[in-house]
Every structure is written in structure tokens, then in C-alpha cells.
Amino acid sequence: xxxxxxxxxxxxxxxxxxxxxxxxxxxxxxxxxxxxxxxxxxxxxxxxxxxxxxxxxxxxxxxxxxxxxxxxxxxxxxxxxxxxxxxxxxxxxxxxxxxxxxxxxxxxxxxxxxxxxxxxxxxxxxxxxxxxxxxxxxxxxxxxxxxxxxxxxxxxxxxxxxxxxxxxxxxxxxxxxxxxxxxxxxxxxxxxxxxxxxxxxxxxxxxxxxxxxxxxxxxxxxxxxxxxxxxxxxxxxxxxxxxxxxxxxxxxxxxxxxxxxxxxxxxxxxxxxxxxxxxxxxxxxxxxxxxxxxxxxxxxxxxxxxxxxxxxxxxxxxxxxxxxxxxxxxxxxxxxxxxxx
Amino acid sequence: xxxxxxxxxxxxxxxxxxxxxxxxxxxxxxxxxxxxxxxxxxxxxxxxxxxxxxxxxxxxxxxxxxxxxxxxxxxxxxxxxxxxxxxxxxxxxxxxxxxxxxxxxxxxxxxxxxxxxxxxxxxxxxxxxxxxxxxxxxxxxxxxxxxxxxxxxxxxxxxxxxxxxxxxxxxxxxxxxxxxxxxxxxxxxxxxxxxxxxxxxxxxxxxxxxxxxxxxxxxxxxxxxxxxxxxxxxxxxxxxxxxxxxxxxxxxxxxxxxxxxxxxxxxxxxxxxxxxxxxxxxxxxxxxxxxxxxxxxxxxxxxxxxxxxxxxxxxxxxxxxxxxxxxxxxxxxxxxxxxxxxxxxxxxxxxxxxxxxxxxxxxxxxxxxxxxxxxxxxxxxxxxxxxxxxxxxxxxxxxxxxxxxxxxxxxxxxxxxxxxxxxxxxxxxxxxxxxxxxxxxxxxxxxxxxxxxxxxxxxxxxxxxxxxxxxxxxxxxxxxxxxxxxxxxxxxxxxxxxxxxxxxxxxxxxxxxxxxxxxxxxxxxxxxxxxxxxxxxxxxxxxxxxxxxxxxxxxxxxxxxxxxxxxxxxxxxxxxxxxxxxxxxxxxxxxxxxxxxxxxxxxxxxxxxxxxxxxxxxxxxxxxxxxxxxxxxxxxxxxxxxx
Lengths: 341, 643
Fold this sequence. Notes:
- Chain A is an alpha+beta fold and 341 residues long.
- Chain A has two domains: 14-183, Immunoglobulin-like (Sandwich); 194-210 and 245-321, no CATH class.
- Chain A has helices at residues 2-14, 36-55, 58-82, 229-233, 263-279, 299-311, 316-320, 324-328; strands at 22-24, 31-34, 85-89, 95-96, 100-109, 115-121, 127-132, 137-145, 150-153, 156-161, 168-175, 179-183, 211-217, 239-244, 251-254, 284-287, 292-296.
- In chain A, the strands form five sheets. A five-stranded antiparallel sheet of chain A has the order 2-11-10-6-7. Chain A has a four-stranded antiparallel sheet with strand order 1-3-5-8, with no helix packed on it. A three-stranded mixed sheet of chain A has the order 4-12-9.
- Chain B folds into three domains: 3-143, no CATH class; 196-474, Roll (C8orf32 fold); 559-642, no CATH class.
- At the A-B interface, helix 2, helix 3, strand 3 and helix 8 of A face helix 5, helix 6, helix 7, helix 19 and helix 21 of B.
């Protein structure tokens, strides 16, 4: 009962809310409390005051009041150090499991005063501290360790400052819906499954570059040599040359081909395959038990493969949770391809 | 701990402890100095800090040393010494930010202890500078990323903002009359008159320029030769030293035929004794005090803080016309020394028809013989009065007063020695008199029937200038006669110091009430003071807050951005929020594909937004058009209807 009330109070006071766009820190979302050090100073000041009264030290009063008022003003300075900061959540590039995910946050300081010694702290007590010069934007990477594949939520962060004297702790909660895709950690080495490709190793060198079949619009991830620069020079936009490759030269990375028994190990092996196949410039397709990607290559293709491997067999809500765009674009054709359960 | 920071902290500790060096035991000052040097060397060389056991050893040994020096660890001197020692020792284990904070707090506390010894203006300025250094170090500790200059700037801003607030608190914080717990007897150093007088005691005091008290008269000041400030009255003589002795019983003094009333106020520097100085003869006094049978004003408690009191005195009086017999007897007692002086007195007694004639004869004798008024008389031996009268004939006021009273008593005239101050220096900038230790004086009082106690100053018979214009006029050779400009400078400085004493240091319960009443607060109570303190400080803080956050309000997202965010909110309501990574154009493109019905409007707005925000300077017209369009943009409900 009491816990529930407490939770309710916290909810009312701190208004935890998951943000997806820009947050501006207003007075409503900045909280201030004295630190332990601040309380200690209060105690020291009290002792001083007693001494002053006892020995009738006028200058002692002056000093005590000065220090006390410096402390009070430091509260305002702490508040000002945070207020009206504009914070945008940036991207978080996918990483392999075991690496550290870097969530980018953009801090925009509109004022002509520098912001000193801001600290970001996550649930895991990891802390990043930084300054933002006057009228500038700083990009701050908040690191989170990864322990398993799938989506890693940035979670709630605390932005706080104890500037200038460490007597007051001014803080605000930041909860963005940013998440980072964590690929499985690839096996160190695993031979590509050429068993399914009857033509053998010699095919690799020429894979996918055989016959020019036409142009298509540029999409992010296309490699530079593929861009039709002559067409671009004629101001007809970015076009990419398309080639067709004989079907027999495609490499299929099949879930069932992985010899491991454990799913996670299979996925680790497949991750290695995708990386190697892309590195060797092969055309490759991905066949998972629940979906299939036609053979292609390029960074975008590789990432899509890795994504499917990373998200394979994970609970649905983990994928959808709080990711607004995907929820709202249900039924539309533009939405990213989603795995069927 | 970075090196510059450690040096800054070392400087802080040095600055707060240095003024104590004068009154700490020598070995403590030396130890602290050594520790500071050692710590600087360790920082400089990068060597590790001393081991824990070594520090423990030093701490225990030196604490025992302090205990041995003072016989306690709790008296004021002992605890200040201990505090300074422990602060310095703490430097030796300065490793973490926490240690630094502890040191900073200790430094602040040590500042306060400095005020126990001096609260003068130079001390205040010095310790204010120290406070700046402490605060700068403190800011630097919290924000290691910034350099000295912004550090000093932040400190100055904090201090400048704190000053008016501290002033409000200083004026309105209800003063409690201390002490809360017993002050140890050593609480305040004393210099000044003593309750005994022997040859040389006053001449030593005359070398001191220290202020004894300051006087401002309500009306016209009396003439200089009337300014006798009565201090201890000495009755008992052992042949060399006069002491106040113990009165067997006390009777209230009787004053009759009082005339020439004069009102003045005295600001007495603490001297750790109970005497309150007043002109002869005091009648009324504003503080709680006793008037003794020999007309001394004694405070109930030793004066260990600066004390201000108003007095009314009468320059013309008859005092104790009917003196008690035991008092008369007491004033006639003599030790069995000085036969020649006794003979001389007997001779005068025989030749004179009354007591007044004897007095006159002695004064004439002093005047006519070659007596010399000097600060450095030759030493006197067992029969000090004889030696002085017939051999050396050189003396300072205590010699003349002592000899005179001896002669009177030998001639059967009741007499006693009165010590105190005579004269004073007029400060015309501040319109008050400064009475210094160098104005210390001794004179005599004789009891004549029909007149009571009458003041006789034998020094006036030898060196009238001493009484009329002060010591430097009487002793031109001894006098340190500074040039006029220096004298003026000194007087001006004393005026400031006096104001400082009166208004800053002497701001006690009484002054506070008087000041607040003058400010127009009626019937001052502490509740009222606390209320007005809270309100006043609150208002000033609010003003500062407005001023400080003014920039912030001015630089919140501009109108264009606000309008754009508004549009985003409208779209978010229909389930199309902008993703964090999306630029305006991308967002519009995405919406256009989902909602063809508003595609054109959104694309147009996005284009306008990009142009306004990232394009070249756009005129007012375009901006206003953009904002208008967003306002006009249909909100949630109408979009659903239309779709």
C-alpha cells in the first residue's frame, strides 16, 4: 500500500515519460536537493554560528552569513547550469554482443553561458561527465555494455550537475526511446558453407558483377563503385548500376546448415558467415526458419541479414516496444519489413 | 588531485593559519611550517605521501605536546592550536576529493578562530581575500575541467551575490547576547592598567600606542586638565608597590554640591578587568555597574569585548565629606621605611597652619627643586621615597604620585593614589577623543575636612605640559613627533576604525534594536526580525534568479522552432511523431506517403521550415507567414474527419 502510494507520488512528481524527439529542460523537470556535502556544510555553519554567539564575533557572523549565502546562491547556479538545455536523442549504431553500445545524445546550449560539469548516469551507475561551451552543441556518447543479442534500450538516464560547489544536486530524468541493435557475437572463424554452391571457390571473384541489366535509384548502403557517376553528372540523380548474376553463383547462408546444436551458437556462426561473405564480395542470401532474404550484397544487405539474425526467435514485444514508428505504420507499405512470428 | 590544485589548497591552508603563527607555541608554528614545506616538496617531486603509522605517530606526539604546553586540550588557546595542527596534518593525507572538501571546511572554520584574536579592518580584508582563495579552490575541485580564469569569475559572482544577502542577515539576524557557555579566563588578551603600581609600571605602559578607549562628548568637552579618567584606586603601600588592598567593608559614596554635569559615551576596548573608566565623578552609567566607596566604576563581569556605555559625570563635587573613620585610618598607614621623607613631612606639618598649606608646601617643593620628569628614571632601592626625593630627583608620574601620597600620610593627611588616564587625543574628523595606553597616569587624592576627597596631581607641579597638552609636549626629547600629514592620516584611519568598531564589531542586541528602530521598524521583536530577514533575503534571491535566468529565457528555441515543434505535436497526436533522427524533409516525405491527404501541406511547411532555419536570412514576412500557416494547420480532429 505504502509502496504503491510512494510509486504514485514519484510518478506525479517526476512524470517519467518516454520521449522520442527533443527535450528541453524546463524548471518543471529539474529537481534540486542538497548533497551530503551540502548538509555537512550546514552543520559546519551551525557550529560557526554557535561560536560567533558565544564569543560575540561580529566578523564571524559576517563570514558565516557570507558562506551560507554563497551556498544558497550555488543552488541557483546549479539550476541555471541545467535549465533550457535542449537534448535530442541521436542514433545508436549497432554493435556486436560484448562490445559497448554508444548511445548518442545531442546537447544544445542556446545560452551565452557555458554549462559546466554535466553528468549523465544510467541505471548501471556508469557515468559520463562533460561541459558544453556557450551557444554550442555537444554530442555525448553514453556507453552501455551489451550482454545479449537483440534490442538494447537506452533506458532512463539521469542528467545531473553539482556545479559549482558540490553542495546541491540538480537533476533531471531523460528517457528516450532510443535503442541499439546488438548482433550476436560472431565466431572467431567459421568456413563459409560452400557445400550448397556447386561451382566452388572460383566463383567468388566474379560473383555478382557479371551482366549489366539496368539502373535503379540509389538507396543508402550502396557501394560507391556501383553508382552511375556519368548519369549523376547529367543531373539525373543518383542511380546505381544493377547487375545480374547467374543463379548458381549465389551463396545461401542457411540456418539449418549451421552444424551447431545450440541456437545461439548457430546464430554466432551465421553472423561470422555474413561478415565473411560480405568481406569477400560474394552475393549471398539468408535463409532463416521464419524468413528468407534473397541473395544480394552491399552494406545494407549485410546489415539486414545481421538484423534478422540478431532478432531471430526473440519475443515480439521486445522488437515493438516503444518503437513508435513501427507501431504507427502498421498496415502501410512503407514500414520496414517485419518478421512474421 | 592535480598538482596546481594541491598547491592552491596548500596556499589556502597557509593563508588561514599564518596569522596564528604569532600566538601559537613556537614549536607548533615550526612543525606546521615544516609540514607545509614537506607537503609542497612531495607534490613537487611526486613522491608518495607518508605512511599512515608515521602520521599517527606525529599526531599523537604533537597532541601530547599541546596537552603538556597548555595542561588541557579544551581551553581556547589549546583547541585553536589543536585545530591548526590537525588541519595541517590533514594535508599530509590529502588523496581524494573528499579529503579536499574536509580541508576546505577546516579552512573556513580556521578563519573564524582568527577573529578571536583580531577583528580589525586589515584582518577583515586579509581574511576576505583568503575566502576568495578558498572558494576558487573549491570551485576548481568540483569542476576540474575549467581553468583559473572562469574559476575566479564564478567565485567572484557567487561572492558578489552573497554580499547583499549576508548584509541583510547581518543586520536582521537576531543577536543573542553571549556567552552560551563559560568563556575560559584566557579568552582575551589584556594590556593596560593593573591594580598595583610600582616604579616603572606606568612608564612602561606609556610606550604603548594602543587605544584604551574612545570618548565622544554630547556637549562641549571639558578642558583638558579636567580630563582625569579614574581607574584603580590604590591604598596600601609596602615601601615599593601600591596595591588596591581589600576594603574591610564598603559604604556607598556620598556626593554633594555636584555641578558642571557632562554627558559623554565611552567605547572601551576589552582589557579583561572590571574597571569602567569615567571622568571624576561619575553619577549615572548606562550599563550595569557598581560605584565603589572610592568612586571607581566596576563592571559586574570582566570587560572582554568592546563595551560602549554612556556616562554623566560632574566635574565639580564634594565627595565623602564625612568619611568613615576606618577609611581615614586606612589612608594614613605607612610602611617603616624612608626616615628622611618622614622628617621632611613632620617639618612641613609643624610649619603649616592647616592641611591645605602642607599640600601647597609639597607642591612648591616639587616645583622649586630640580625635579625632572622623565620616562627613564634611575633605579630606586629599599627606601624608594628617600632615594627619589633626595638622590635621583628623576621620575615619571608614578614616582611623583607615590612620593606625594607618602609625604601626605607622613604629615597625617589621609591620602591615596589614583591611577587612570589623563587627557587624550582629539580626532577632529570623527569628533571624538582617543585615549591611549600612553595616556596612563597616576595622581593623588587627599582628604581635607570640609572638602572631602580632593584631587592633587603632583606631576602638574613639575611638568604642567603633561596635563595641559599630553605626554609628547611634556617630554619633547622622548616624543615621537610625526609630521602633520602622518598624524592626520593616523587620525583619519582611527575614525574609520572607530566607525568599524561601533557599527560592525559593536553591533550587538542593543545596537541592533536602536538601528532597526531608526529604520522605522516599530517595537522590534525577534519574530519581526526573522520575518523581515526571510522576506528580504527571499526578495533579493528572487531578483538574482530573474537576473540570472534572463539570458535563458531569451535564448529558448526561437519562434520558428517553436512553431515547427507545434506542428510536430499536432502530427504526433494522429500517430505520426517525428523520430529523433529524422530531419524535416524526411519526416514530411514519410508523412506524405502515409497521409496523401495532407502531403502537399506538410511538404510545403517542411520546405519553408528548412529554408527559414538553415537558409540565408529570411525576412519578417516569411517568418510570420510560416507561423500563420502552422497555426492554421488543421488539428487532430479535423484531420481524422477529412481522412
